[in-house]
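Reminder to self: tokens first, then the designed residues, so the page reads top to bottom the way the pipeline ran.
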């Protein structure tokens, strides 16, 4: 897609963080927006600022783990603008860090339901409509640098993001095989200044934090605080859509860790626990 002006973009998780960064970048290109999030107050505040700048938009409260809710989002988007050109399946959460075997089934259902199934629901609801419309389009699925490496932390999150990368690769191959005018990108951000550490603020059955978990969360927050601005990610996404880039790396200087993992896979060695640079102090 070379020109985004007057095209329509749908962004989930749009009230803050990377989602809002993408929404701002799309607005700067003259796009019309459908902004979705589970947090209505934050969504309304974000939308009001964009509307003040002249952006044409609608907002929808959506829990992306609910397939019917995502289908209703697609219906609203097409009813409002008649077409959708870009879909950013971006909403995501992260769990508290525990050994892999200590998570409850509720923990697994919560993270996978949003991070992975939210992307599945977005693909199922939007791609058939986009194909029927026949217009140029692009799907951006937010994965993570963690979806490219192995690790020893937040295993449910890592599993979900590996799934998003693989799903995006398959989607790209499917669309390419049929000659569809729809591109795909897997967004693999590193540290970005967002509120993801506190994503269980929207979870009804969030477990209590003990002192150890609170310290772990604080250390993770240091990494997040050292990250790049979400608006920088949004501009990178725009550049990647217009240039047709599939893997979007916010921190290409970290890719040696990915190479180490790939080498281990090829050589049959023990999986390397990916180590990324320490947060800036």
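Designed residues (281 positions):
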């Amino acid at each position: 897609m070379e020109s985004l002006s007057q095209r329509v973009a749908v962004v989930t998780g749009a009230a803050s963080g990377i989602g809002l960064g993408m929404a701002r970048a799309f607005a700067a290109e003259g796009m019309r927006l459908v902004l979705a999030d589970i947090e209505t107050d934050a969504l309304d505040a974000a939308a009001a600022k964009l509307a003040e700048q002249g952006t044409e938009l609608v907002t929808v409260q959506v829990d992306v783990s609910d397939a019917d809710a995502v289908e209703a989002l697609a219906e609203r988007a097409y009813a409002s603008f008649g077409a959708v050109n870009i879909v950013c399946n971006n909403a995501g959460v992260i769990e508290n860090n525990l050994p892999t075997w200590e998570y409850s089934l509720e923990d697994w259902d919560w993270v996978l339901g949003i991070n992975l199934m939210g992307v599945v629901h977005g693909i199922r609801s939007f791609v058939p409509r986009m194909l029927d419309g026949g217009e140029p389009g692009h799907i951006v699925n937010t994965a993570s640098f963690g979806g490219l490496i192995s690790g020893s932390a937040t295993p449910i999150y890592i599993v979900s993001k590996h799934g998003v990368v693989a799903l995006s690769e398959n989607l790209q191959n499917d669309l390419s095989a049929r000659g569809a005018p729809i591109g795909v990108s897997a967004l693999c951000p590193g540290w970005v200044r967002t509120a993801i550490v506190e994503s269980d603020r929207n979870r009804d059955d969030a477990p209590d934090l003990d002192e150890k978990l609170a310290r772990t969360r604080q250390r993770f927050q240091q990494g997040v605080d050292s990250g790049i601005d979400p608006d920088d990610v949004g501009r990178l996404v725009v550049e990647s859509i217009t240039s047709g880039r599939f893997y979007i790396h916010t921190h290409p200087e970290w890719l040696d860790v990915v190479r180490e993992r790939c080498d281990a896979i090829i050589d049959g060695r023990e999986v390397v626990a990916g180590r990324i640079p320490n947060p800036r102090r």
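The domain at 8-267 is CATH 3.40.50.720 (Rossmann fold).
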